[in-house]
Design a protein that fits this description.
Shape: elongated
Number of helices: 15
CATH topology of the largest domain: BirA Bifunctional Protein, domain 2
Number of domains: 3
Helix content: 25-40%
Number of strands: 11
CATH class of the largest domain: Alpha Beta
Largest sheet: 5 strands, antiparallel
Length: about 425
């Protein structure tokens, strides 16, 4: 069993998230405890009581607690069993006297339930959430695993509960199905990944076949800083119905995302050198001759390389997604040596290379038969066709040899001190 705990200032967001699942037929309310005049059958009445209790301490930042209990796909738990485990878990972490709701969701590949509660007590005191996951939740989780013979979290395969890309072909292009599929991705990516721009966010979303885009110029969405989220296929082409950011529970509009940019930039700073080292080692020792091979080498180190392509098909930028630290870096944010132009030079590809050719080996690039920058020898017949003036110009012109020097051996020019 895997327990995940999230905190926020709003009790409405997790409540309406689960109630929406309930209305769509993808969830079932298993329990409504310690809430007067409210049962599992009329759970929609719980929000009034929850808001009043949360309002007892308006200055407290974290007062909404949203917990998910995830079980192995091999475990077939009944509603009663899951409700009992949820009750014992909530009592074990010290929330047994708090008002809480338990919802079982049916829209995922593994059985799981969500618990919505608050850490504020009726006497205006509160339950501390500091290190509650490590110090309180983990011992309770392990105890329940032993008691009910559940598959231990450490023994579960890592990819069973991992977020998987949306398969565009499997999405029914109705609004609810598209919204639910995109919403699951956004709920996992936005709070956990550290990005500082819309482009960096899109680099992560593209890994899951989702794209955020501006509204049309002059539209209400564009003027109000809104965004549209849509599903893309494996070729990067949009499919299905675009969904407004304001329709999702967390309201991932551009204005709300911008609030994360500064804090994310501060957090990711300590991981910058680690990402640069991974790139340098991959280029220096593996000597990739295409972007695809560079991607493969970085993927082994938990780093995803996402190229940015313009309408003409040329690569104008590179973004790096570190799956270990959950940090996203545009190439220029790491330094000039890691921007698209420099990376293409370091793996000896043309600067303005088409995205399709960039993924092919550099051996596929035909060289001019009589090019002086080419390493091949000019045949004798070519010299015999030259006149005296042409021959003299050929012998006296500058011989470009920089392409024969490996990038790592090139010496940087020293800056002269100004007097």
């Amino acid at each position: 069993m895997v327990a995940r705990i999230k905190f926020s200032a709003s009790i409405r967001k997790p409540f309406h998230y689960n109630m929406q699942k309930l209305k769509e037929g993808n969830a079932k309310c298993l329990a409504a405890e310690n809430i007067p005049m409210c049962t599992a059958e009329n759970a929609e009445l719980a929000i009034r009581f929850l808001e009043k209790q949360v309002g007892l301490l308006p200055d407290l930042k974290a007062k909404s607690v949203h917990i998910s209990l995830n079980f192995s796909p091999d475990e077939q738990l009944s509603d009663d069993q899951m409700s009992l485990i949820a009750r014992e878990y909530i009592e074990g972490i010290g929330f047994g006297q708090q008002p809480y709701l338990v919802y079982r969701h049916h829209d995922s590949g593994h059985p799981h339930c969500h618990i919505v509660t608050t850490n504020i007590r009726l006497d205006k005191s509160y339950i501390s959430l500091h290190q509650i996951g490590k110090n309180v939740s983990e011992p309770v989780r392990k105890e329940l695993e032993t008691k009910y013979g559940l598959v231990r979290a450490e023994e579960q395969k890592k990819d069973q509960l991992r977020l998987k890309p949306i398969t565009a072909e499997k999405v029914i292009y109705g609004k609810l199905d598209t919204k639910r599929a995109i919403g699951n991705i956004l709920a996992e990516v936005i709070p956990n990944y550290k990005f500082t721009s819309l482009g960096e966010l899109n680099a992560v979303l593209k890994l899951y076949n989702v794209l955020a885009e501006w509204g049309q110029e002059g539209s209400r969405i564009n003027k109000n800083g809104g965004l549209l989220y849509r599903i893309i296929n494996t070729k990067g082409q949009p499919v299905g119905v675009p969904i407004k950011a304001s329709l999702f529970a967390d309201k991932p509009t551009l204005n709300n995302l911008a609030k994360r940019f500064l804090t994310n930039d501060t957090y990711r700073f300590k991981f910058k050198n680690d990402v640069k080292t991974k790139i340098d080692l991959a280029i220096k020792f593996k000597k990739p001759d295409s972007l695809q091979k560079l991607q493969e080498q970085l993927k082994i180190q938990g780093l995803r390389l996402v190229p940015q392509v313009n309408e003409e098909g040329s690569i104008f930028g590179l973004t790096y997604v570190d799956l270990k630290s959950k940090c996203v870096f545009n190439g220029s944010a790491l330094g000039k040596e890691y921007a698209a132009k420099r990376i293409l030079e370091r793996i000896h590809l043309p600067e303005k290379v088409n995205v399709n050719n960039a993924f092919a080996s550099r051996k596929a690039y035909p060289q001019n038969e009589y090019s002086l920058n080419s390493q091949q020898k000019i045949p004798l017949e070519a010299y015999q066709k030259l006149d005296e003036n042409s021959m003299l110009m050929l012998l006296m012109q500058y011989e470009f040899a920089a392409s024969n020097v490996p990038y790592e051996w090139k010496k940087k020019k020293r800056k002269k001190n100004k007097r």
